[in-house]
Specification:
There is one protein chain. The protein is of the alpha+beta class. It contains 14 helices and 13 strands. The strands form 4 sheets. A 4-stranded mixed β-sheet has the order 2-1-4-5, with no helix packed on it. It has a 4-stranded antiparallel β-sheet with strand order 6-7-3-8, sandwiched between helices. Strand 10 and strand 11 form a beta hairpin. Helix 5 runs antiparallel to helix 6 and helix 7 crosses helix 8.
């Protein structure tokens, strides 16, 4: 509907923003599961298209102001930075003696940031009253849930275009407090770890994080926050990282397998369309977890075998190990074009250069991806 009269809608939006008459509409409240097979949900706030455009305008105005102020070890939702860079930074610190890890968790961070804290952090660098008042109106726009309007007095909605930037602006204070205290850390949005040389230092970092989060009006989740070591391992950005392995964490594995289950229901037809949908899920997961620092090959082999078992059950409408001889792996790769997680794994040649594994079933990675 917005696209149908795009130019007129954009001109009207521009006039409202410049004339200080813009009033955002309430967001649509929806919920997604926090974890696979869990009853716990995460609330999202979905803005209308018009408001998303307005938020993008604000983001493009504010990002150049705050980007130079952000700490180098903040990687979430910043230009030219991603999850893999955050993980590599953490992995590079461990051989330098940073063996102890404060694995911190903020309780419902996006939902509970006080509006006053957000506006105070913005006003410290932005003098334009129109920009500040527009952001404030977005924060207090409210939500529609089951047809009922509910006001919002705290938090910035997950699902909003500008929310990640506002989160970074608030947590930038925590970053620099840790830096001034001499701690090494890696943060991606509200997910962060502090890397220390001793357990005592990790406890001191915990005290600083507790103090700063209380100042910001946000809560540290003491049930999930803990001190561990690189030897024992810890979870960060979907990976389980330890001195022995850097693999997909169990929750990420379960989430992927649940997606595969939805696409491989036994009474559905095994056809090209089913394989195409499955390949999308496999490719997306492999692009994230099959990195040069990951050690997922053995796990990927097991999951690939499980996927083929699911497809054999689709073909014959029942599960039987005898079907392994009727439909071998080469059939899925050569006839159906099924991708495997393993074929995306990274290895190194004799000269130390990164190269990709040639799939066991004969197709090259490039050919299989096509």
């Amino acid at each position: 509907m917005f696209e149908a009269n795009r130019d007129e809608n954009l001109l009207a939006l521009m006039r409202e923003l410049k004339g200080r008459k813009f009033q955002p509409k309430p967001l649509r409240r929806t919920y997604i599961k926090k974890e696979p097979r869990s009853s716990k949900t995460r609330p999202l706030g979905i803005p209308v298209v018009r408001d998303r455009v307005a938020q993008e305008v604000l983001r493009r105005l504010l990002e150049p102001v705050f980007e130079p102020l952000f700490h180098d070890n903040s990687f979430g939702f910043r230009p030219g930075r991603n999850c893999h860079m955050a993980i590599r930074t953490a992995l590079d610190l461990h051989p330098q003696g940073y063996w102890y890890v404060l694995d911190a968790d903020l309780r419902s961070f996006f939902d509970k940031i006080p509006h006053s804290v957000i506006m105070q952090a913005l006003a410290a660098e932005v003098a334009d009253g129109n920009i500040l008042s527009t952001v404030e109106r977005f924060l207090s726009a409210g939500v529609m849930e089951d047809g009922v309007f509910k006001p919002t007095t705290v938090g910035t909605p997950q699902g909003g275009v500008i929310s990640p930037l506002l989160a970074n602006i608030v947590l930038n204070h925590l970053d620099w407090q840790l830096d001034e205290a001499g701690f090494r850390f890696v943060r991606y949005a509200d997910d962060f770890v502090v890397l220390c040389r001793s357990k005592q230092q990790a406890q001191e970092a915990w005290n600083i994080v507790t103090r700063v989060t209380e100042q910001l009006g946000i809560e540290l989740n003491t049930d999930k926050t803990h001190i561990t070591t690189y030897g024992k391992g810890y979870e960060f950005l979907g990976f389980f990282l330890s001195s022995r392995s850097r693999r997909m964490r169990d929750k990420s594995k379960q989430k992927f397998m649940d997606k595969v289950r939805e696409l491989t229901v036994r009474h559905h037809n095994l056809d090209a369309d089913a394989v195409m949908k499955l390949n999308r899920v496999i490719r997306g997961t492999a692009n994230y977890f099959a990195t040069d620092f990951a050690t997922n090959r053995w796990l990927f082999q097991k999951i690939d075998s499980w996927i083929r078992m699911r497809l054999r059950a689709m073909k014959y409408n029942r599960k039987s190990y005898n079907h392994n001889y009727k439909l071998r792996g080469t059939f899925f790769a050569n006839k159906l074009g099924l991708l495997t997680l393993e074929q995306f794994c990274v290895t190194f040649d004799a000269h130390g250069k990164v190269c990709y594994v040639i799939p066991r079933h004969g197709a090259t990675l490039f050919g299989a991806a096509q």
